[in-house]
Amino acid sequence: EDPDGRVSSLNVDEEIQNLQEAVQGLQEKGMQVTVLTGRSELSMGLQHKLISQGFLIEKRNSSIDSIVSLLKGKHYHVLHFVGHGRFSTRNNKALLSLESEDGYLAETTDDTIIERLRDLDFESLPKLIFLSTCQSANRQNVTMMQDRQLFTGLAYRLVQLGIPAVVAMQDDVSIISSRIFAKEFYGTLAVDGIID
Q1: Global pTM?
Q2: Taking CA 179 as the corner, what is the angle to CA 47 and CA 58, rounded to the nearest 5 degrees?
């Protein structure tokens, strides 16, 4: 966020380029990668590069309905989300900055995301969801529980839904740190195939 609390824009080309480099080892082992661009257009140069490397590009909005539609009936192993997120302590809800059906910014609550993902059959749910977004996994102190920290937020709810592995951030994370982590994570996954 900028000093006024507004969401800063992401350089979509840079983020997709970083993700392309991060998953290269997995792609070489046969993983198919589909990029959902949202209303952000990728540069022609990057589009050609991705297509030449076997990536599929879906040009549609990045609403939760579009994401669910893309997943439905398919067997994607990984859903990697790059974007903004936050956790509202006022109502204990995680929010992801997705798009509305008409392509405008829509903060989408964890309730809505989980409700829509429940529409999918088990086989259509990804086996790994990587949330490259701030505050997608939170811990909250609850004094009534002898000061144990309980997990809240989208990541916890995704695990409850049945997603076997979820990678998420408990706090704010810089774009650079997120990129480095994604490269290391997917590089290690390509080598040994083990998440934890």
Answers
A1: 0.85
A2: 30
